[in-house]
TrEMBL record:
Disordered: annotated segments: 81-104
Domain of life: Archaea
Source organism of the structure: Halococcus salifodinae DSM 8989
Name of the protein this chain belongs to: Ribbon-helix-helix protein CopG domain-containing protein
Acidic residues biased stretches: 85-104
Amino acid sequence: MVERKQVTGYVSEATHRSLQAKADAEGLSVSEYVGEAIEEKIERDGLESAADRYGIEERMLRLVDDAADRAADRIVERVAAAADAETENSEDTEDGGMYDWGDE
């Protein structure tokens, strides 16, 4: 059996009536109902916190992927530009890039 500790708190009259009605509907005492509600809230907060951390990790991974894609695109553009420049330089020679020493 799980050891239970007492927690005392105060609520408004309206909240107390609501808690009493909900506890009665579930066949529990107000104390049991509030205890279960608190445990569920703590568990839900823990799950939300884990989900938040997971969401942050997912966003970071997307950012890294996007940055890698942009870097790869820039590399491709630079390589293509260099290849174009080399092609233009080779077209300046008479026989497609091959020439003898005195034919400059």
